[in-house]
Write a structure and sequence with these properties.
There is one protein chain. This protein is an alpha+beta fold and about 110 residues long. The protein has a domain of about 70 residues: Arc Repressor Mutant, subunit A (Orthogonal Bundle). Helix content is about 40%, strand content about 10%. It has four helices and three strands, in the order αβααββα. The chain has a three-stranded antiparallel β-sheet. Strand 2 and strand 3 form a beta hairpin. The protein is globular and about 30 Å long. It starts with 10 loop residues before the first helix and ends in a 28-residue tail after the last helix.
């Protein structure tokens, strides 16, 4: 049985989002499951800024953009060879797509 994966939004699409988004939408942008992002939020390990509105959790879009733009930059820098030449990075952004926190995980 295969699971239908949601297409990840581009940075340009995310820039058009409202100031905050729900956890599902933020998880899609980060390329993780909603459950994984909820776990990270509940354990104070979420790499993006989360605000609580009553019982709801909202993720600040600017913090998602900063995280994803930084990850894109890190992917590009990690792809450079020692002589300074750049090599191609896959469409998933390579291994820098998920950034660890200061505790080594997120």
């Amino acid at each position: 049985m295969t699971r239908d994966m949601t297409r990840r939004p581009t940075l340009d699409e995310i820039r058009q989002w409202p100031a905050t988004v729900n956890v599902q939408r933020a998880a899609e942008a980060l390329g993780v499951s909603r459950a994984h992002l909820y776990d990270a939020i509940n354990q104070n390990r979420c790499p993006a800024t989360v605000i609580f509105v009553g019982t709801r959790r909202r993720v600040v879009t600017d913090s998602l953009l900063a995280l994803l733009e930084d990850s894109s930059r890190l992917s590009f820098e990690a792809s450079k060879s020692p002589n300074g030449a750049s090599t191609a990075v896959g469409p998933d952004g390579g291994s820098a797509e998920r950034r660890p926190t200061s505790r080594g995980h997120w």
